[in-house]
Amino acid sequence: MARIAIFGFNRLSFEILSRLDQNLHEIFVVEQDSIRAGQALDKGLTVFNIDFRNDEELSKLGIGRNIDFLFCVLPEDSDNVFLTLSARAMDSRLSIIAAVEYPDCIDKLIAAGATKVIDPYQICARKFCDLIKKPEITMVLDHTVFGRGDLRLAEVTIPEGSRLIDKMVSELNLNVDYNLILIGILDKELNDDFHFVMGEQLHKLTVGDVLVLIGPSRAIRLFTKELCHA
Amino acid sequence: MLTRLLLVFAYMLKTSKRYRSIKRFFFDLLENVDNPLKKIFDVFMICIIFSSVGLKVYESRTAPNLYIDWFEYEVMLLFIVEYILRAWLYNDSHLIILREYEKALYLNKPFELRAALKEILLKKLAYMTSPYALIDLLAIIPTYREIRFLRIFLIFRLFKLFRYVNSIKIFTDVIVSKRFELLTLAMIMGLIVIIATLAIYLFESPALGGEIEDLFSGFYWAIVTVATLGYGDLAPVTPAGRIVAMLLILSGLVGLAFFTSIIVAEFEDKMQVFRENKTAAELKRYTDFVIICGYGRVGQEIARQLSRIKHKFIVIDRKEANVEQARKLGYLVIQDDACTDSVLLSAGINKGASVVVCSTGQDVANVYITLTSRHLNPKIRIISQVNRVENEKKLYQAGADHVIRPFEIAGLLAAEYVGQPVAFEALLGLLREQRHIHLETIVIQPGTFAEHQSIKDLAVEQYKLKLIGIISANPVHLKHKNAYKVKNEHFYFNPAPHFILQAKDILVIIGREYSIGYFRDQLEKSGLKKGAK
Lengths: 230, 533
What we know:
By secondary structure, chain A is α/β, with parallel strands linked by helices. Chain A has 2 domains: 3-120, NAD(P)-binding Rossmann-like Domain (Rossmann fold); 148-229, 2-Layer Sandwich (Alpha-Beta Plaits). Chain A contains 9 helices and 10 strands. In chain A, helix 6 packs across helix 7. In chain B, strands 3-2-1-4-5-6 form a 6-stranded parallel sheet, with helices on both faces. A 5-stranded antiparallel sheet of chain B has the order 7-11-8-10-9. In chain B, strand 4 (353-358), helix 17 and strand 5 (381-385) form a beta-alpha-beta unit. Chain B is extended and about 115 Å long. The mean pLDDT of chain B is 85. Classes of the chains: A alpha/beta, B alpha/beta. The interface between A and B is large, with 75 and 74 residues.
């Protein structure tokens, strides 16, 4: 169970909340504005109405102790940078995901210590452009990775003692055996570098490698199960 | 008899395709601003005018030259032909005859040729008295060496440039549209000059020690002074004359200031119109472009990404700052309210646009633009942004084909990071097309090698591509498993090796940009080869 703090209650955090399984994680919202904090409360969320500029209050929330993920989705870029800086100083291993309003701020957020930066407008515009240029793709994306259909994008870590260890990627044949398509691998040996798997399948699998797959939920479950048992 | 002959002739012209195409050609050459032919013709005429005027000026102080005269003769012929062509293009005279004739038939009255001819004559006269036609005519005259004083009309040849140079036209438009203000100013200044002329004539007469001998000298002095030029060849000497001079200089300054401000202000307005005309002219050349309504953060990103893939688009926004920003980036912009019919029409919603994007931050505006666009063009694709979830349905009702919640994907992506950070990386990579990895679709065209081929034989792996699935509306494929219904098509995920591809099927593949490009090229080439055979 991960502890997740979301700073800022707005449309973006609303979308994030709707995608996170609230039974699986302990999630709370931090909102400075009392009206919006009230709205979040009405939705049945755990809300803290505190000042994010105050390190003591952040520490009280659990940053530096037991918070695993921090979402900085405050409306002002400068606030997000400030929060990222404060949180990073308190916990060097915390996963900080920040959103930007203006693209110039991406570098600043990364410099401040954000793990991942998301530009929501860029991603949204991407969908507009895909709909204009290649509408079929958006449909496929909706069905495969955006959870509208049975298909989904999943990652599977290769456990200790798995029969896949030392196998070549080209030997896997996941699409025939499991009805899964392997699109990428995170390679433990190559300092955690993620790469897409296209034709070059000479890679040898090791413990801790992460496979990124597309496929029906059932097939993914089956594959994960067999991976552990073998 | 003559009437019959004329009628037959008029009918012949009306039905003749050849006549129409000839007239069309000359129209394109002389009048059609959007035609590249006219641009060439304009430049040619400008060169002709400059050389003819230059030679004339040169000849005026030297002995007559045979070659110059010959050139002058040719130029005159060209001008006359152009004049006649323009008069011919001005209207369709045969249609007037036919209209009159049909009217007479309908009313059961005898057809009067004279009335029709009179109307034709009036129309042509109307052309001949238009300012441009008059300039054209006057430009022909100076060729006759015999009428020496008509040489002044040489200047009219330069006026003829107005026809061919667009920017001069803006200037004349400015003056014409501000004629009331300019006329008022001219009258006031004229009055001041007259008063000054009389005053200086009275105060500065030679009898009083002045230099102004007659009214003309007075008038000349007044003009030179009011224009704040002051040559100094005539200067007031009496105290009264000097007071007049001082007052006249001051009023001259004020008058000039007014004149400048009137012209400059009007220029500002005209430039706006001029820019919009230019935008419209540029749009006419495009087909399949996108109309982006609203240049906020989402609109800006869409424009940026479209311009990167070189897809044509036009931006409509009301806010000055947004428009300025778009203009700086060299985008086509209309500064207006996208909710109105006229703005969408002038943006080309019925002329070449294929998609309308509603990306204003307000749902009300988006709904309104969607409704208006759908009403104006029932076939156009409309993609709209929605800010509040509850309005999504309203946008679909208004006629949107797709509705996008701006933060939906970003939210999903952020949430994905919590459980599956590596999958998040893959997704972000695909969405941003990082490392040149693209998710693409390739349509199987009839006649290409992929048609009627099995997935196994196609072996996209040899191109270093990954086949995710196939989109098809073909019922032949329905026997295969892993089919996901999407609208009126099916998406076949991970198709089996024995899946046989049909024409119009769409492959969904992941791969590097150049692998995809290479595969696509191979497909297209095979199609062409087969077509050639």
